[in-house]
Amino acid sequence: MIAPLIVLALLCGAWELIVRAGVVNELLLPAPSDVARTLWEDRSILGPDLAVTSYEVVLGLAAALVVGVALAVAMHLVPAVEDALRPLVVGSQAVPIPVLAPLVVLLLGFGLAPKILIVALVCFFPIVVNVADGLRDTDPDARRVLASLHASRWQRLRLLEAPSALPSGFTGLKIAAAVAVIGAVLAEWAGSTSGLGHLVVTANAQLESARAFAATALLIFEAVVLYALFSALERRVVSWSPRTVS
Amino acid sequence: MQTEVEAPSTEPLRVQAGVTVSGVRKAYGDVVALDGVDLRAAAGEVVAVVGPSGCGKSTLLSIVCGLDAADAGTVDAPEASLMPQRDGLLPWLSALDNAALALRVGGASKAAARAAAHSHFVRFGLEGFEKTRPAALSGGMRQRVAFLRTLLAGRPLLCLDEPFGALDALTRAQAQTWLAEALARDPRTVLLVTHDVEEAVLLADRIVLLSPRPARVVSVLEVALPRPRVRTDAAVVQLRERALTALGLQP
């Protein structure tokens, strides 16, 4: 916990020096001290926008989790579904969101729905792939034991495959948490009236670069907090995994 | 799903059946694992299958357990439960829940399965470790949990695939003793795959010696020694020498 803070302090210190020395235009790159001051002074603007974006991110992640896990289980249980959908799932990840987002906004309007859809679209790939792989990579000896006991398909899923998939499922969720914020910002850029992504656009237009950077700092903070939350949850839920034993 | 199932091994199994394997052949692509293997175990007998590593012993057990199909030959065996080479314990379950797994799969309620498994914990030296997960158990304890799981499946035939292969010599000696005791209490037909000739002599009624791959039966030794057997006993040592000689490992 201390080490990343030291690295952060060093980076900010160097950044501060570069800006103070006048190497770059302050309109392009505000000093970290300006960003910090803006974070405090503009808190009444930043706060509500942070709440909006967080709401989009959490709902989008939840949607991706539900749809992603359901899809992974379906792909695992039915080979035809796996064959049919695996290339599409991979392909979905290659669709550039800036291309897709305006279309989604056009269809679903400026409300919450397009944001949730785009966040979910960005997040569901790491969840599907990691859960599907986790369901498949089970201990061969445990598989043989269950087979010799004539375990039903459902018992195999519940007793062996689902618990086996938990560690990699959490890996997928942590990756998703990091990219969810990007998805929310891109969705807001395509059309919105609030949120941190929206604030970045308007602040840039008004040459309020310190405010744009303050919003960005909050976005980064949000991704880190989500990641930390999922890591903590992982340690509780899969305490048996060698990865979480520390 | 609250089906109450009577714990199968609280009463000794009365229905026991023997195993007859004849002319079993199995190849994986061009690699012939088993090349006409014959084997017989009468009801309640312990038959050890001994052979060099990679000779297809595990394949033979898979076929007897019905996990794999033979290319040729016939297998006549009752319902079997398998104890795999590495224990195959589920790392997220406690020792008690791992031992009770077969009962859970058989449809017993969680409480009933746990109660049935727990009644064996003292005898297997697992008391106090009910809630411990496999990673925190010693190698010997893990094997006892895995054996208990296999026993509680309530099948007349136990297929043990190198059950003590991963244990150190001292722990293995203890494990062989408790296995002999457990089988004396609760007799089953047992196929014991091992590469340890001494283990076979200590535990088995008959030893089937296999050649290197492709596996064929080299020789069958009857072990007509009283139990409990002691590894330093002259008869045990003599039989071990005979087995090693038959395997071509001794001049």
UniProtKB/TrEMBL annotation, chain A:
<feature type="transmembrane region" description="Helical">
    <location>
        <begin position="210"/>
        <end position="233"/>
    </location>
</feature>
<keyword id="KW-1003">Cell membrane</keyword>
<keyword id="KW-1133">Transmembrane helix</keyword>
<feature type="transmembrane region" description="Helical">
    <location>
        <begin position="57"/>
        <end position="78"/>
    </location>
</feature>
<feature type="transmembrane region" description="Helical">
    <location>
        <begin position="165"/>
        <end position="190"/>
    </location>
</feature>
<comment type="similarity">
    <text>Belongs to the binding-protein-dependent transport system permease family.</text>
</comment>
<keyword id="KW-0812">Transmembrane</keyword>
<feature type="domain" description="ABC transmembrane type-1">
    <location>
        <begin position="50"/>
        <end position="231"/>
    </location>
</feature>
<dbReference type="InterPro" id="IPR035906">
    <property type="entry name" value="MetI-like_sf"/>
</dbReference>
<keyword id="KW-0472">Membrane</keyword>
<protein>
    <submittedName>
        <fullName>ABC transporter permease</fullName>
    </submittedName>
</protein>
<feature type="transmembrane region" description="Helical">
    <location>
        <begin position="90"/>
        <end position="110"/>
    </location>
</feature>
<keyword id="KW-0813">Transport</keyword>
<feature type="transmembrane region" description="Helical">
    <location>
        <begin position="116"/>
        <end position="135"/>
    </location>
</feature>
<dbReference type="InterPro" id="IPR000515">
    <property type="entry name" value="MetI-like"/>
</dbReference>
<dbReference type="Pfam" id="PF00528">
    <property type="entry name" value="BPD_transp_1"/>
</dbReference>
